[in-house]
Write a structure and sequence with these properties.
It is found in: Cytoplasm. The protein contains seven helices and four strands. The protein is α+β, with helices and mostly antiparallel strands and 148 residues long. The radius of gyration is 15 Å and the shape is globular. It binds uridine-5'-diphosphate. Uridine-5'-diphosphate binds next to loops.
Length: 148
Amino acid sequence: SVLLPKFRKMTTHRTFTMIKPDAVENGHIGGILEKITSAGFTIVAMKYTQLSKRDAQAFYAIHKERPFFDELVDFMTRGPIVSAILEKENAVEDFRALIGATNPEDAAEGTIRKLYATDIAENAVHGSDSDENAAIEGAFHFSGREIY
Ligand code: UDP
């Protein structure tokens, strides 16, 4: 819109998400997408895909020294995921609020993880934790031509 300030960066209103293998296996793709669109997010890119070991190791490289790293890579590669780029004002922060805490036991009522996650590892969804990571993660999964 012409009313938006020219200095607004595209990255500040986008986030990146994955519906993880547990939620796909458990039949929750539709429920999770319904929560996302009902909360006012627009889907600007989306695909149904499966990560290779190398993809998952690269995506989660920041966690490579953590004790759960190998388990996380095995989990994230065991079946298909849905990956997507979402757009909304304040997308990163609002999406983190919508998904809830990493451990579903600590997640607020009504959040996606409270509703659909199994445990701290198999927690149904990913959400970027900063604008910078949203841009990096989106570019990791999508080419420019795949983003609306
Ligand atoms: N994870 C895990 N065990 C832990 C903590 C995290 O398996 O003790 C997994 C979980 O799938 C989590 C991901 O590693 O979503 C990334 O962890 P992070 O702390 O970045 O949590 P998030 O940002 O996803 O809430």
